[in-house]
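Exam review. A common question shows you a sequence with its structure tokens and asks you to describe the fold in words. Practice with the pair below. Do the first one on your own.
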Amino acid sequence: MKLYIDPGTGSMLFAILVGTLGVARFAFKGAFVKLKFLLSSGQKTERDNKAAPLVIFSDDRRYWQTFEPVVRELTDRGFEVSYMTASPDDPALRAEYPHFIAQFIGEGNKAFAKLNFLRATIVLATTPGLDVYQWKRSKYVKYYIHLPHGSNDSTTGYRAFGLDYYDAVMISGDYQEQAMRELEQLRGLPAKEAVTVGVPYMDEMARRFERSGSAAGHERTVLVAPTWGASSIFSRYGTDFIDTLLATGYHIILRPHPQSFTADKELMDSLMRKYPNSGQLEWNRDADNFDVLSRSDIMISDYSGVIFDFAFVFDRPVICADTKMNVDPLDAWWLGKPLWAVTALPKIGPTLNEENMAGLKALIDAAIEDKSNEESRHSARDETWAYRGEGAVRAADYIIKKYTELTDAKPEPEREPATV
């Protein structure tokens, strides 16, 4: 008989193990430092207790696009950046920026075990769940800042308590602060800093799109890029949806969320066997989604954050499937009111449901050819993508200012933001 341990108990056991190992580690380290102190005639080196100015932690290789614009801005100003990744194939490990060091710190719990005793002034991360499960706040870190990897409201993008124990959150639009404050009041939490910086990676994507020029002529292309789990298009509509797509005669790109290949592995394996790559259909798993977004005429999705990348950067329509998103495990459940994403999606394009599924081709054609929703799409973009073109500069300004406050270091001059 197999022993089952639920996630909460597993996290508790892991925390106990990490704590025990941490005590042993620092007892050994303390003895070692004392011995070195005696052997060096009492001359303690500064290196023994030196904290990194800034550590960026990434739990997946795909988030390098989120961090790279900020890394480039900081290192251009001579600010030291240490980058720790849980992905052995993270592109950051090959990046060559001055004042920048990247290292692979192991996957899963091994990475968190290292982070739990990290020495740094500031930690910047896009990973939710700090101090909730395996990832604990280190007493040797002064400040934790969250940088979202999308422009959507975090209450629909993260599971409950995802951002509760960060000290600051960089937001993309002012409306996001209201939801954050309501959750803090409901849970009796101290107020975090909310810093509106925009979306650095979308600024970068917009510049790439502007430089790339218009796409060459191609057959009409439909990109399907859903979220994962029970609310995904693939989980809700399955093979009937793909059959209907293929019946349109258009070129179809299926790009599942990366988490689908873990959480929904059986479903993904089944779909990929039944619908292999062909002249009409392709499966896309590129780490960098720019190419697949730029060559698609329309996207069909559900509640995935990539909707906003496509609609706002490339200014193209999105058909959003009504898959009855379950908000029970999310922060959104606590708020009990219409969410920004739910109110924004109708502005971006039409809704797909079981009733109009048979007419999918006509729905696709109308969404592409009808320009009447451009104005409402731009309105939604303005709500959630503040300071377009300035995100990396504003993020770097805040990090340097906060580091100065925490260390009484000499402040760096602020730079003029670029424009898209």
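Now try the second one, then compare your answer with the model answer below.
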Amino acid sequence: MEAINIDLTLIWALIIAFGVFMYVLMDGFDLGVGILFPFAPDDASRDVMMNTVAPVWDGNETWLVLGGAGLLGAFPLVYSIVLPALYLPILIMLAGLIFRGVAFEFRFKARGSKLPWDVSFTAGSMIATFAQGIVLGNFVLGFEVEGTRYVGGNFDWINAFSIMTGFGLMAGYALIGCCWIIMKTTDEVRDQAYRQAPVLLGLVLLFIVVVSVWTPLMREAIAERWFSLPNLFYLTPVPVLTALLTLLMINSLRARNDYLPFFCSLGLFLLCYAGLAISLWPNVIQPDISLWEAASSPNSQLFLLLGVIFTIPIILTYTTWTYWVFRGKVTRDSVGYH
């Protein structure tokens, strides 16, 4: 019998891609709620908005830990390049997540003004999201590398493209957060979200167009992948599905369907994620370090894989259970987060 060759590097790439995608979707909407916090009609509305994500926000961040730990174990070269290049924005992101977490714990216990915790929740959400967008933008741009060592400057991450992706991710998270509020609330809070959603959708589409134009202009290999034949025919479904999903979302907002906009917004993120993967594949460090060059030894990958095989189903199970238990609408009369 012939031996079955298993590409552990590819398996780990899919696992990490799945973990990052789950984090973007699941922590994205509660970061989006924080971004929209200042625009709530009143303090009671902010209570409702926070209560919609209070039972699930910390569990959502499990995916960030899984993706980060998996990346370190399976692709250590990525860590050795990305961390020196993006140390400050990653540190800023973690600081934002800490501020947001503190606000969750203390806001409902505040005896006096809730303003400091409102500011902490909003600022933490905005800072963490913008920093994630900075990291994403620089990941697409690539890093100045000699051999396997980062040789760029400490502030090379500050550039026009990454600043644009930072604001773009803020718009995207705000959109899915807005659609989450529509799905989970009633009355004035939901009505406010219905008014905000079309504006946010327009912003997201604008950023999608800008990235779609800027990225191929920035790197010839990406332009060739998307616009050469026969690739053009194979990849056309991505922009077509994006347009169709946008129309479906617009119609669902007009029809005041409380549930469909949220899933449409997740679909838009999925298509953007797919477009990014198509553009960058198979390099994990742009422009020319591939997944296989950055991977750890097969023995290390196999050892870690044995643990992840059990970990991911457990995470999916308790995540599904949590969302099921806390399903339904949150109203002003709902019990607060304590």
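Model answer, second protein: The chain has one domain: 8-320. The CA atoms of residues 24 and 148 lie 28 Å apart. Full marks require stating both points clearly.
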